[in-house]
Amino acid sequence: MTRDEIDAMLDAMAAEATQSGDGTLLPGAINFHSGTWVKMSSADLPTTCVNTIVGIRYRGVSVLVSSLREDRVQNRREDEGQGAPYMDLEPRA
After folding, report:
1. Among 14, 16, 33, 79, which is most buried by a count of CB atoms within 10 Å?
2. How far is it, in rounded angstroms, from Cα 55 to Cα 53?
3. Contact by Cβ (8 Å): 27, 89
4. pLDDT by residue (tens digit) across 33-55?
5. Side-chain half-sphere CA neighbours of 65 within 13 A
């Protein structure tokens, strides 16, 4: 997934949640397989580690990395709370 693809998915999820009034459709987590993540640079996806509890974030959305994960963006219903604590979606940089 490229930064542009991720941004498009995040924005589409936010728009769908707003239109439907269903907060569970808001972005919940950005998942990366560890093999993908180690090849990425900060220019590819400028993430921030907020702290050890909140973890890594991109535009306020949790970034989860594991060898057991597939590269994808999940809404809050799909991520089953793994992206919590949830924050507001930040604007594109």
Report:
1. 79
2. 6
3. yes
4. 999 999 999 999 999 999 998 99
5. 14
The contacts of residue 30 (CB under 8 Å, 6+ apart) are: 6, 10, 58, 61, 62, 63, 64, 73, 74
- In angstroms, the CA 51 to CA 18 distance is 29
**Residue 40 pLDDT:** 94
What b-and-e string marks burial along 39-76, b requiring 16 or more CB atoms within 10 Å of the CB? Answer: eeeeeebebeeeeeeebbbbbbbbbbbeeebeeebbbb
pTM given for the model: 0.94
Say how far apart CA 22 and CA 70 lie, in whole Å.
Answer: 25
- Among residues 42, 32, 29, the alpha carbon closest in space to that of 66 is found at 32
Q: Examine the pLDDT at 93 and tell me if it is beyond 90.
A: no
| Calculated CA dihedral for residues 57, 11, 4, 55, nearest 10 degrees | 10
